[in-house]
User: What shape does this take?
Amino acid sequence: MAQIEQDMQQDDIALADRMKSGRQRIVEELKKLIIGQDEVINQVLMTLFVGGNSLIVGAPAWRRRCSSTPSRGCSISSSRASSSRPT
Assistant: This one.
């Protein structure tokens, strides 16, 4: 029984290492396109990994680039809210 638990623990550690490596590769690629926004990248990735939603507030051009970049890399579609102000 102890051997099975030890094997499961090693599998969990290996999975965590693969996830960490994959996350680092994603961050490296995003930093090539989104410069100087490390904290925003980390928060958006955290949101994506847990299946949540993010509201990105900033310059319109930056929002447009940020919303299209992950979708290109992940082959997912994205939509953005209208930036027009209510009257």
